[in-house]
Amino acid sequence: MSTHAYADVNGVRLHYVSEGSGELILFLHGFPEFWYAWREQLTAFGADHRAVAVDMRGYNLSEKPDTVEAYRVPTLVEDVRALIEHLGYRTCTLVGHDWGGVVAWAFAMRHPDYLDRLVIVNAPHPVIFSRELRDNPAQQRASRYMLTFRSPEGESVLAADNYAALVNGVLTPKETFSDADRAAYLAAWSQPGALTGGLNYYRAAQLGPPTDDTARDAPTALVADAPAIMTPTLVIWGERDTALLTGNLNGLDTQVANLTIVRIPEGTHWIIHEQPVRVNDEIRTFLTT
After folding, report:
1. What is the pLDDT of residues 196-225, one digit of tens each?
2. Is 253 a catalytic site residue?
3. Of the residues 79, 98, 163, 185, which is catalytic?
4. pTM to 2 decimals?
5. 217 flagged as catalytic
6. Which residues contact 144 (CB under 8 A, 6 or more apart)?
7. Pick the catalytic residue: 15, 49, 97, 269?
8. Hey, which bits of the chain come out as E strands?
9. Which residues pair with 15 in a beta bridge?
10. Separation of alpha carbons 266 and 34, rounded Å
């Protein structure tokens, strides 16, 4: 049975959903999702863990600060640290997808003592992604959508025609998402300020491909520094991801000392929806070996 609750942490009120008891496994979603993205994982891991999925700041039922600066990565990292403590834990397994994965990578660099294990699903390591945006024309092309997301028109583009761009980009194919799933996502996207909150992650990081020769020489810094990650880490990657290309796996072992990579050739960016049982099995194997 899922329990909904709120935590007042790091200056914001965060909504989260939990199942089960035991060691903490905490799930961080990406754009444009919310806690519901992890519903299959809550059920699976709530059987023998305290499984918690949070609405990140700016999303769904969590608080949505007005300023872009409130969405910088170090602040998001402190949200996670404070939430772990609020839940009564000192360590956890942290699982992140997309932007949630970016925050999880940064968390592992800043607070390794809070982590037992780290699981990343289709989310680029900040150092590797900076390299790919700088040097890889294919990743530059794949990331051009980020420029739209950062623009003042981002909200209107994504909200047009009852969120058609998001529906077509996320909630397909139909066999993966039920009518109830679509209704839940539309309700989350329709929360006042929710689109702006999610887009502010991109705006705060100034994340995207170079737009001219001057910008090409400017580093894309999601984190101020990037010490090697020593936490045992599993990376699950759907290789048909059209936004985050497999070049993001190249050289990852130079940044992560204890690394396991599972490539899923037929998986897309939305692998947690397409193959939840496979994802759960890979995480379970990682946790028990």
Report:
1. 999 999 999 998 998 864 444 444 556 667
2. no
3. 98
4. 0.96
5. no
6. 208, 209
7. 269
8. 3-9, 12-19, 24-28, 50-54, 92-97, 115-121, 233-238, 259-264
9. 6
10. 24
